[in-house]
Amino acid sequence: MFLIATSLNCFVFSQEFKVSVSVNSAQLQGTDKTVFQNIQEFLNDFINQRAWTDKTYEDYEKIEGSISINIKEHATQEDFTGDFNVMLRRPVYGSSYTTTLLNTQEQNVSFKYIDGQTLEFDENNYTNNLVSTVAFYLYYFLALDADSFAENGGTEYFNVCNNIITAAQRSPNAGWKRAESRKNKYWMAENYTNTTYRTLRTANYQYHRLGLDMMTGESQSEARGSIIEAIENIRRAYREKSDLVAVQQFFDAKADEIVNIFKGAPENEKSRVIEILKEVNPSNTNKYEQIQQSR
User: Fold this and answer.
1) With contact defined as beta carbons under 8 Å apart, do 256 and 290 qualify?
2) Other Cβ atoms within 10 Å of 281 Cβ, number
3) Rounded to whole angstroms, how far apart are CA atoms 236 and 234?
4) pLDDT tens figures, 234-257
5) Which of the 8 DSSP states describes residue 284?
C-alpha cells in the first residue's frame, strides 16, 4: 500500500536496475496528490516488470541510480511539466566506494498521463513522452555503465537510444530534436556515437576500469596515469568541438572526485592533470587549483 504524499520515494528492482524513483509535487498547492502517487506507481511497474536487455544480472551487478521528477505544472487533468534529475552510480572494484557516472538535469519535460491508460514502450515507436524519456535514460544508463567495464561495451544500448530519438522526431515535445539545443537527449547520444568523438568512450573505460578499479591495489600511480590519459582523451574530443554535452556531463559528475584523487599525487602528475582540466573544464578552475595547493 502506498501513502499519498508530496514526495514519493521507493526503490525499483528489476533484472538490470536498482533505481530510486521519486515524484515531487511540492510546488503545486491545493492539488490532489493521488495522481502523483499513480505516476509513481506506473513508473515502478514500467521499470520493474520488463527486461530491458537479454542479459542476466546478478544482484551485485545491478545498475544503481535515481530518477527524480519535480512536477512544476499540472495544466490539465492529463498534462504535466516537470524537471527530471537523473543520476547513475557505479561500484568501484575492491572497495565500498561508488562513483557517479552521470548527474544531470533535464528541465521542463512535458508529458501526458491518464490514470488507467495502458502505456507500452517500443524503441521504434513514439507514443508517450514520459515513457520515451524514462526509457531513453535507462538505456543511457546501460550504455555508460557497459562502456565503463569494457571498451565500447555499450554500443548496443547507445543504438537503442538513437532508435528512441529517431522515433521521437515527430513528437511535439522538446528535448529530442537536433536544432532545439546542444544539450538535449539528441546530442547526448550523438556525442557518444559520432566517431569524431570516439575518444570519449575510450576515456570512460580508462577512467573507471583501468583507473578507479585499480586504485585499491598496489599500482595507484599506474591507475592515476590511466585517469590522466582518460582526461587527455576527453580533451581530444573537446578540441574537436568545445560544447559537447557529454564532456560537460562528465565533469559535472567527476570534478570533485578528480580533485580528491590527485590531491596526494606527485607534483608532475598534479601539474599535468591541472593543465588539461583548466582547458576542458574552465568553469571549475578554482576547484582544480585545490589540487596544487594540497600537500
Assistant:
1) no
2) 23
3) 5
4) 999 999 999 999 999 999 999 999
5) G
